[in-house]
Amino acid sequence: MASYGCIVAEGPHDVAFVAKVLRPFGFRRVKMIEDLDRFWEDLVPRTFPYKGDLLGRVPVPTFLKNATGSIAIHSARGDTRLAETVEEDLALLDVSALTGVGVILDADSGASATQRFTAVKEALGSAPLSLPDTVGQVATGSPRCGIYVMPDNVSNGTLEDILLECAAVSYPSLKSAAEKYVGGVNRDDPILANDRKVEFFKPAGEKKAVAGCISSVLKPGKAIQVSIQDNQWIDENTLKLPIVNAVQKFLCELLELS
After folding, report:
1. Interior CA angle at 158 toward 21 and 250, to 5°?
2. In terms of domains, do 37 and 58 share one?
3. Domain span at residue 47?
């Protein structure tokens, strides 16, 4: 019998990261609809434009499969839709057939990891899940359920904190050059200060810029999630880093992987 897992992550970068962390267990992306397990077919939108939005991305999860299991990783397209996306997905699935349901988000909104966990847990109060008591814990109900707040369930930060630790191992010279470039930005430049759309000055802005610079060298003109998928941010060496290994252990417990 196949094992099914459903994970909702904050954004496409997080989706790519989770997929890469799961690769050592034989999981590969499903590209063609004919290769998709029918269990997931109701999660695939059948119309375009989705809800009439010509500019919006059709919210198709990233599907993974190996010899014995299948996983859907859904981008919530922002932290405000995490619980809503979980509930939407569960409404379309046979929840009793799921091994685990997980939520993965960042601690970069001015709230602590525990506060972010509590907010998501409260928002999931009506979902048919046995919710965990603490952040990073997996509740062993049916299905299992866990909420992981990056970078480490304790510190304020984002996925980029993890990626930069990985870059120090996989791309040390690129990381050094990117930090030097970003560090040389004139923060008093009036053009930057007067543009309200500039996100560089947000708490995680500088780290996101450094990670983006590294990605732009590895995959010029491509989104960072493509670099996470194709390059060596996550490999056998960086999986040994405690900050990465902790995520993998969480996913193993959530999805009963060994």
Report:
1. 40
2. yes
3. 3-156+238-255
The total of structural domains in the chain comes to: 2
Confidence check: pLDDT of 166 > 80 = yes
DSSP labels, 8-51: EESSHHHHHHHHHHTGGGT-EE--SGGGS-GGGGGGS--SSSGG
Are 135 and 194 part of one and the same domain? Answer: no
Distance separating alpha carbons of residues 124 and 84, to the nearest angstrom: 8
Same domain, 7 and 107: yes
Instruction: Compute the 3-state secondary structure of the chain and give helix, strand, coil in percent, each to the nearest 5.
Output: 45, 15, 40
Number of CB atoms found within 10 A of residue 217's CB: 13
Does residue 1 carry a pLDDT above 60? no
Give counts: helices (H), strands (E), the chain. 9, 7
Asked if residue 209 and residue 113 are part of one domain, the reply reads: no
Q: What CATH number is given to the structural domain containing 35?
A: 3.40.50.10620
Share of the chain above pLDDT 90, in %: 79
Please state, in angstroms and rounded to a whole number, the distance separating the CA atoms of residues 136 and 233.
22
Residues 142 and 184 in one domain: no
Q: Taking the model in full, what pTM does it have? A: 0.93
Rounded CA separation 225/215 (Å): 9
Tokens of 133: 């008591």
pLDDT tier, 2 (very low <50, low <70, confident <90, very high otherwise): low
Distance between CA 44 and CA 58 in Å, rounded?
A: 9
CA 83 to chain centre: 14
Say if residue 18 is in the same domain as residue 101. Answer: yes
Higher pLDDT, 170 or 126: 170
